[in-house]
Structures are given as structure tokens and as C-alpha cells.
Amino acid sequence: MKIAIILFIIQYTNFKFKDIKGKEIEIDTLLEKGPIILDFWATWCNYCDDVLDILKEIKEEYKEKINIVALSWDTPKTSSKIEPLSKSRGWEFLIGIDEGKKIGRSYGVIFLPTLFIITKEKGIVYKKVGYNPKEKEEIKKVLEGILKE
Q1: Domain holding 71: CATH number?
Q2: What region, left, alpha or beta, does residue 148 occupy, with left being phi > 0 and alpha being psi -120 to 50 degrees?
Q3: Number of folded domains in the chain?
Q4: In whole angstroms, what is the distance from residue 126 CA to residue 87 CA?
Q5: Which one, 21, 73, 80, 110, has the greatest CB density within 10 A?
Q6: Nearest-angstrom CA–CA distance, 25 and 97
Q7: Over 60: is that where the pLDDT of 3 sits?
Q8: C-alpha angle with apex 136: 47 to 119, nearest 5 degrees?
């Protein structure tokens, strides 16, 4: 029996998205201000809320040093739940919709939640699929490393 191992290398690509208010945002513009945590999620995803709650805590701790972008895979049918959910949980970071899952697919996202950390120099230095209660410490360790540079 032959086993094939396929390695996917994910490269940063610039993209635009609309936030939940309809404003168009370009990711390169955000990167000028510092690293980005990019999270793909959906309102129907069981663990996505847990990851976004962690990101809320991280945003409170790191304030203006980082940007957080949460791109939802909700469909037009379920996207009306995004804004009420984000308000009820106090998520005060950029939330947008990945229409047709195009952005996520370009980053190799298959499962939700999937999180990336992108450096100001446009390098992807972290990828996490799923939820782990220790994820906050992992993310903070990566952020501390790239913010020192």
C-alpha cells in the first residue's frame, strides 16, 4: 500500500471583505497597523463562539497592537444572526462575511473554526483548526514573539 503525503503551504494573499455594516475593508490596509488574527467562523459552529470569546480577551489585552478579523461563513439565510450575536457577546473587533467562502478556500480552510496569525510583513506564522481551551496561551505566545521583532 502506498501512502501519499500532501503538504499544503499557505501563502498570504490580500483580499477585501465587507464588514457587517457593509463597509469594504482591505486586509493589506489593516496589516499596515500591525499583525492580524484572522478567524473563520459561523453562527451555527459549536466551538466558534469559544474561540471568538478568547479573541475578545486577547483584543482587550493587546488593544491597538493587533487587529482581529472574524470572517463568517454564514449564508444569507443565517447571516442575520451575526450582528445580534456579536453584540450580545461583546465582540468589538472586525466581523465580516466571507461570501461564498472564497477567502477561506484561498487560505485552505475546510473546517470551522480556523484561525491564522498574519505578521505585518505578510507572513502566516500560525494556523489553528478547531478549539482548544489552551488556545489563548498559544496565541499570546505567538503574538509576543512577533511583537518583539
Answers
A1: 3.40.30.10
A2: alpha
A3: 1
A4: 27
A5: 73
A6: 11
A7: no
A8: 105
Give the three cell numbers for residue 134.
489552551
What pTM, to 2 d.p., does this model score? 0.91
What would the pLDDT profile of 48-70 be if each residue is shown by its tens digit?
Answer: 999 999 999 999 999 999 999 99
User: Is residue 66 situated within a structural domain?
Assistant: yes
Beta bridge partners of 6: none
The per-residue pLDDT for range 93-147, each reduced to its tens digit, is 999 999 999 999 999 999 999 999 999 999 999 999 999 989 999 999 999 999 9
DSSP structure string for 118-138: E-TTS-EEEEEES--TTHHHH
Query: Is 123 contained in some domain?
Result: yes
Whole domain around residue 91: which residue ranges? 17-148
Determine contact, residues 95/86, Cβ cutoff 8 Å: yes
- 67-72 and 36-41: which strand pairing? parallel
CB 39 within 8 A of CB 71: yes
Using alpha carbons, list the distances in angstroms from residue 33 to 13, 28, 52, 66, 71: 17, 9, 21, 7, 19
CA separation, residue 44 to residues 10, 38, 78, 149 (Å): 26, 18, 8, 37
Dihedral Cα 5, 11, 15, 18, nearest 10 deg: 60
